[in-house]
Amino acid sequence: MGDLIQQVESLQLLNHFLLTLFLLVPMILVARTVVAGTRYSPILIIVIFGLAMGFVLETSGLAEPGLGQFPVIDLISRTTNIALIVTFFVGGQEIRRIFGNKEGKTKDLLVPSEEEAVLGTKRTQLVLIVRSVFILLGIEAVVRLITGQGGALSNYYPILAYLGLVGAVILIDSKATITQKPLYIRKGVLEIIVIIGISLVAFHLAEFIGEYIALPSIFFAMVIATVLGMLLYSYVFGPTIKALLFAGIPVVLAGTFLVGGSRISEVFSMEGANAVLGYGFFGQVFWMFGGMALLMFFANTASVRNLAPGMAGALSHTGLTGACTAGDLGTKAADRAPMLVNIPFAMHIFVFSILAVSADQEKLFMWPSVVMMLLGFVLLVLGLRNLRSAKGNATDRFEIKSLLQFGFGWQLIAIFGGMILLSINPMSVEFSAMAKASAISHFGLFAAIQNGMFGAEAAGLITFTFSMTFLVHPFVFFMFGRAMENNEEMPKLPVYILAVIGLVGILASVLFL
């Protein structure tokens, strides 16, 4: 009887694996179909589709809040670190090339197929999307198996690892032109091994350092991947990096939105949820459009090549980072985003240190927060001034340097200024951290809370609050879509209006909710 039960459970795992594929991949394909022929990002649709689907699964009785009945989807939603390791690696390459005056990478090994498999998605792109699901599941299962992490699927990590890694290796578009197929496949295997290695080293470093300072594993993964990218600046991507760059973040977001959507009914009935969601919604508007308004008014730039990667880095913004790296916002934004995300992320050693002490004290560690906010203001002014004077500079380097200064400054103001503002409200520091992570779609803070930095309750709720505030993103991506269709120039008046609405909204949510 025991053998029979085990066989039935194994069959259920296979069903969950296939169901995850059939839920996530069509969601991304539908999103790409809806925006086909426009300059809008498909993440615009993934937000709405994912939250609605999660809500329907819960209200129809098919699942409980958190999608415990769909453990593979929940596992996908926890693979943020894997998708970001690739972004950090590419960012390290760009840092070395631009600031080290190094030549770009050599000729690509893959020429993608131009055949359209689904409206808005070419055949090679479809393969990249499906392969991303396999890669994320396979690597996450291997890391959890080696590190001994538990979970609903802990008994099935070996089979998940096998299915994921085998699919990741063999899924290559047969109609794409590959100049050196054996080398290309070997690169894919090597990239998987390296990502697993970085994840394991980052996990153990976080465990070791955790006795002194609560830095999450994503911080160490960023440092290692960035340094590796700087050393291997001429490395030509294999199939693993290509897949995760193109579809890694969209797949993770699709899983996150499904899980978050399933918690809509639950969280709205919780005490303190209104203040968290209110600040999160209006914070999304203010910190995004407020930052763009500063760039437009003081730095005199409305170009997407500056606004998109600049704000992605300034807020460590998950959705905008994914749109940039996928190429939805132009080649310049795609090239700049990994680097502009990486370097401001380095100062998270201060962010996580101060927030870790705040979590222990159960209140905001005030004086270092004020110091960091003031430092952010200085860097912000410096960046805006330099970017304004970069108008006549023909090279990218000066413009990028100015955007990095702006990114450092605005992120310090957004995080610590926001936390200081939230301290006025009687909500707990755990809820303040959730509100802050949700208000700027901050992938680092999201991953840290999800991994338990602020306790089990915050770890369970962050997926919902983070997902719900993504409902503001249709405005964000609509505006960027309009800009792309307007010769890549962002219209100024709507940005100024949204910035003012966001400011009024966050003040009202803190003072009255």
Quick recap of the structure?
The chain crosses the membrane at residues 13-31, 43-63, 75-92, 126-147, 159-176, 188-206, 212-236, 243-264, 276-299, 339-359, 365-382, 403-425, 461-481, 493-512. The protein has 513 residues and is mainly α. It has helices at 2-34, 43-59, 71-76, 80-99, 123-147, 157-170, 181-209, 217-231, 239-261, 264-268, 273-297, 304-315, 318-325, 331-345, 348-361, 366-389, 396-422, 429-440, 443-450, 456-468, 473-485, 492-512, and strands at residues 110-111, 116-118, 121-122, 177-178.
The fraction of residues assigned to DSSP E strands is under 5%
How many helices in DSSP terms?
22
Rg result: 22 Å
The helix/strand order is HHHHEEEHHEHHHHHHHHHHHHHHHH
Identify the overall geometry: globular
How many discrete domains?
2
Estimated helix fraction: over 70%
The structural class is: mainly alpha
Biggest sheet details: 2 strands, antiparallel
How widely separated are the two ends? 56 Å
> Which strand order spans the largest sheet, edge to edge or round the barrel?
1-4
Q: Overall mean pLDDT score? A: 81
How many strands appear in the DSSP assignment? 4
Uncertain ranges? 1-8
Transmembrane segments: 13-31, 43-63, 75-92, 126-147, 159-176, 188-206, 212-236, 243-264, 276-299, 339-359, 365-382, 403-425, 461-481, 493-512
Keywords: Membrane, Transmembrane, Transmembrane helix
